[in-house]
């Protein structure tokens, strides 16, 4: 059985009224849907824990993590090489901070 595309998975999650319209949509609309679905998945995957070997080594701060005595330990560091030496096995990017709050509220 062939693996489903992201567009097919998104299609299956649509309400039935939208599915009927989708059947008659031009291929360009379907291709755009696939592109948007791929971008959403890529953005999500970029925020997940990844092997430490793929961590940036440019001095940017990242989360690093490891299992130690059956507990997950994590910290923020700019020194990935040192984290590797300390046994950290995973990393993930630190998300951008929220936009500054409006203090007028």
What does this structure look like?
The structure is a single chain. The chain is of the alpha+beta class and 105 residues long. The protein folds into two domains: 6-46, no CATH class; 50-93, no CATH class. It has four helices and four strands; from the N terminus they run αααβββαβ. It has helices spanning 6-12, 16-23, 27-46, 80-85, and strands spanning 50-51, 62-68, 71-77, 90-93. It has a four-stranded antiparallel sheet with strand order 1-4-2-3, with no helix packed on it. A hairpin with a 2-residue loop joins strand 2 and strand 3. Helix 1 (6-12) crosses helix 3 (27-46). The protein is elongated, with a radius of gyration of 21 Å. The N and C termini lie far apart (55 Å). 7% of the residues are buried. The mean pLDDT is 82.
What is the fold's blueprint, element by element?
Blueprint: H1 6-12, H2 16-23, H3 27-46, E1 50-51, E2 62-68, E3 71-77, H4 80-85, E4 90-93
Antiparallel strand pairs: 1-4, 2-3, 2-4
Main traits of this protein?
105 residues; alpha+beta; four-stranded antiparallel β-sheet; 4 helices; 4 strands; 39% helix; 19% strand
Q: TL;DR of this structure?
A:
The protein is of the alpha+beta class. The chain has helices at 6-12, 16-23, 27-46, 80-85, and strands at 50-51, 62-68, 71-77, 90-93.
Output the strand order for the largest sheet: 1-4-2-3
Q: Tell me, rounded to a whole number, the average pLDDT.
A: 82
Which runs of at least 5 residues are low in confidence (pLDDT < 50)? none
The helix-and-strand class reads alpha+beta
